[in-house]
Amino acid sequence: MLSQLLPVVLVLSSVNHPAKATATVVLPLKRSFPTNNGVEISQLEARDRVRHGRMLHQQQHNGGVVDFPVYGRSDPLLAGIYYTRIQLGSPPKEFHVQIDTGSDVLWASCVPCKGCLIRGGLDRIQLQFFDPSSSSTARPISCSDQRCALGAQSSFTKCSAENQCRYTLHYGDGSDKSGYYVADDMLYDIVTGNSLSTNSSARVTFGCSTSQTGDFGMFDKATDGIFGLGQHGVSVIAQLSSQGLIPHVVSHCLRGSNGGGGVLVFGQIVEPTLVYTPLVPSQPHYMVNLETIAVNGQTLAISPQVFKTTRYRGTMIDSGTTLGYLAEEVYDIYDILLRTLYMKKKDTSEVCSHENVYI
């Protein structure tokens, strides 16, 4: 809590010359908020936005980086998803789309859409549908278009009788989404070196979904679509990068506390406290090398082969998945550790349960 913060004094020591005495300068740091009353969340959010701008301003590529607002939270009992707002078409229409680093395609529900909800319960979002006929700049992608071939890298594609490049997307939870690819304008905010935000637009290829099954039809998780941020050429990050508009870097911070939210930018976040780990090269998804797992400070005795990246195994970074999933061998050893901790604590009437031991 802010009221528990202690006064801070910054002390700077300056040495002008080895032969001279050291000068000490004391700079008091004043509080931005008083300690005798609470702070509105809107005030904290305003300060976060300013800090976010400072983090971004050093990273520039042709004038700035693309900044998206982030909503949602990690609690699986409250949908457990993060989403952002995008604007598509002319005139532009706003859509709320789930942020997903585990897939590549940006898609929005279109009219008509079989199996699509017209109302949802996620943060009282009013669901929207993209209508290509209502956008003066929308154009369907033909089967002979090179952009259809890019879509085929990330989805099952086929040619319709109208020469439309149609797709079907299969997700890990068993959900399916089908439709056709279109090209249209996407509006976005550019953050420049002086932390100012300006509007810009670019032509992107995305999915116009006309049919859905599975969890996409769940009332409490319904959004207007999915923002696939994977590595293949059909992803928006790859498209804008190939046009020379942005760096081919995506930075995504998921805030788990204080109401959720976070950061999503096309560009690199300047934050000295970040800890980096390399991605496994030549993989279809964002894979990292998981080495060990510790529970309550005790490293589990798991063979490194369990975490080795192969064609069917590995550790994938997926912002669209609520829970963390581990190989079966990890759960077996974890269960043994829990039983061992339980036996050690039993004599002192202390019980170690799943609720207070975390990976």
Automatic annotation (TrEMBL):
Lineage top rank: taxon: Eukaryota
Location relative to the cell: Membrane
Domain (Peptidase A1): residue spans on this chain: 82-359
Signal sequence, start to end: 1-21
BP terms from Gene Ontology: proteolysis
InterPro entries: Aspartic_peptidase_A1, Pepsin-like_dom, PEPTIDASE_A1, Peptidase_aspartic_dom_sf, TAXi_C, TAXi_N
Active site as annotated: 100, 318
Residues spanning the membrane: none
Keyword entries, A-Z: Hydrolase, Membrane, Protease, Signal, Transmembrane, Transmembrane helix
PROSITE patterns registered for this protein in UniProt: PEPTIDASE_A1
One MF annotation (Gene Ontology) recorded for this entry: aspartic-type endopeptidase activity
Cited Pfam families: TAXi_C (PF14541), TAXi_N (PF14543)
GO cellular component: membrane
SUPFAM superfamilies attached to this UniProt entry: Acid proteases (SSF50630)
Family in the record: Belongs to the peptidase A1 family.
Protein name: Peptidase A1 domain-containing protein
Organism ancestry: Eukaryota, Viridiplantae, Streptophyta, Embryophyta, Tracheophyta
